[in-house]
Specification:
The chain has 170 residues and is an alpha+beta fold. It contains five helices and seven strands. The chain has a five-stranded mixed beta sheet with strand order 2-1-5-3-4, sandwiched between helices. It has a two-stranded antiparallel ribbon with strand order 6-7. The longest helix has 15 residues. The structure holds FE2/S2 (inorganic) cluster (2 copies). One FE2/S2 (inorganic) cluster binds next to loops.
């Protein structure tokens, strides 16, 4: 079957999609967007988190057909493209780098999506809000303190004038 959807603001089409195929598979294997990770494929780890019509979902649990005609935002869609074609990191992405919160490539994309969603809804979150927002995103390796520091940093910088979720120049 053919699936038409909007991904990171652009219309995309995937052909030959099997009925049981996941949105995650379509994004990674058919549309060339490997940022969303396939770690558990059971809705347990959050590595595949994307926005579907504005709501966070585990793309591994969404059938591709359910995305027909809908809007998907992946981690690749967080950074804006600068005039030179290079990505311009969001305040949150910059904060992850500066706080040393970038860990392995599996958990970080989902953590960024969840944190971005939190800061969009709650620009000045309490620590409990941050922990709750990230509770569906598992890291198997380490603590979460630097990640929480990064969300705090992004929130503080945004309050100081850097717009959350928008491009921040190098
Ligand atoms: S790969 Fe989807 S939740 Fe783990
Ligand atoms: S799962 Fe990513 S650093 Fe542990």
């Amino acid at each position: 079957m053919r699936v038409n959807l909007t991904v990171n603001g652009s219309p995309r089409t995937a052909d030959d999609v099997w009925p049981g195929e996941s949105l995650l598979f379509v994004l990674r294997e058919r549309l060339g967007l490997p940022g969303s990770k396939n770690a558990c494929e059971q809705g347990e780890c959050g590595s595949c988190t994307v926005r579907l019509d504005g709501d966070l979902v585990c793309a591994c649990l969404v059938a591709a057909g359910q995305a027909e005609g809908r809007e998907v935002v992946t981690v690749e869609g967080l950074a804006a493209e600068g005039e030179d074609g290079a990505p311009r990191l969001t305040a949150l992405q910059r904060a992850f780098l500066d706080a040393g919160a970038v860990q392995c490539g599996f958990c970080t994309p989902g953590l960024l999506m969840a944190a971005d969603d939190l800061l969009t809804r709650t620009p000045d979150p309490a620590d409990a809000d941050i922990r709750e927002a990230l509770s569906g995103n598992l890291c198997r390796c380490t603590g979460y303190e630097k990640i929480i520091d990064a969300v705090r940093l992004a929130s503080a910088r945004t309050a100081a004038g850097a717009p959350a979720g928008s491009a921040e120049g190098e």
